[in-house]
Amino acid sequence: MLFSTTNAPTLRIGRWYSHVIIKVTRHQSSKHVVVNGRSKSSLYTITVRHPTSQAVIATLHKSDFDFEQLRDRCKAALRHGHKCNALCPWYYVDMTEHVPKRRLFTSPCSRYAVGFHVKIYQDLFDHTLAFLQCPDTQACPIAAQAIPQLFFEYLFGQEILFDLFLEGATSPPSSASFSDTTSDEAYALSSYCGRWFEHVSIRVSNAPSKGTISCGRHKSAFYTVTITHKATGATATVLKSDFDFETLRDDTKRVLERGHVCQAACPWYYVDVSEHVPKRRLLAVLETSKRAIAAHIRLYQDLFDHTAAFLQCPESSRCPRADALVPILFFDFLTQNLDGTLDPELLVVPPVADGSPSKIMSRH
Hints:
Elements: H1 7-16, E1 21-26, E2 33-36, E3 39-49, E4 56-63, H2 64-78, H3 88-97, H4 111-133, H5 141-156, H6 184-196, E5 200-206, E6 212-215, E7 218-229, E8 235-241, H7 242-256, H8 266-275, H9 290-312, H10 320-335
Antiparallel strand pairs: 1-3, 2-3, 3-4, 5-7, 6-7, 7-8
Helix pairs in contact: 1-5, 2-3, 2-5, 3-4, 3-8, 6-10, 7-8, 7-10, 8-9
């Protein structure tokens, strides 16, 4: 049960997290292994202490499968895409990245894997405590009620142990605000790029005749990205590889500056960018299979569709990253190394007010 009939118990649970320390360590015996189908997991010891007295409140043992269930329940409770004034989207990213995915050829019970898992599970609890103690968290019922209760049930089961609650409050560090100044030229360019995406359609398709490209031991097929102006009908094509999309993903995540606070949907878009560029496979031969190429085309098409919707969302104009940096990144990505000569009609953007249609030539 995520929500109580009264908010009082849940609010007390939320305050309780400011008065505990949670520590994740290896289980004392490496022989304790949990089996779930074909997968295995070591056990991890979670110790909950009072920060002042260091008294042990609880000691429990959890497996990778338990953390996977916690991740899935939290992600479901966070409702991907919901709008609030808390940092739920960034916490969604934390929850996703701090529970390891199952590996095909690496034993989750090896010394290296267990050590790595201890570290990221500790980070998960640390980030969760910081998230729950943030003042903005109280502005969202999901962050203020559902997440604290989910973690409390994870640590102690369904029983609500009210005698563990303590009075008090915390004063977590405030988030730094983002300020940015740009020149008139840069502002005009970013404004143009943002509006340009309203007037073009983008389609991704396979380019089998172009062969493959290698980067180290990894390979990639080529994909044709076709840009069509909705009004003038002008078109252009550009070839891109998986490696190009990986660079675009990394650059976009960098300019989005994970953790920043704004009125736009930047955190959810951060998740979209992360999930719509596939990770490299362990077996390089599978990266250029017909099935992989078809899956990549769908992902890249969704990436462009989601990006266009994100850039055209009114809230995006309230964040300089969403309004300026992301449009320029994608504009450069699409106009670099075009096949043939760039048709100026592809760059036409209808004026906002009275005046002639605006054009801007590619800088490449």
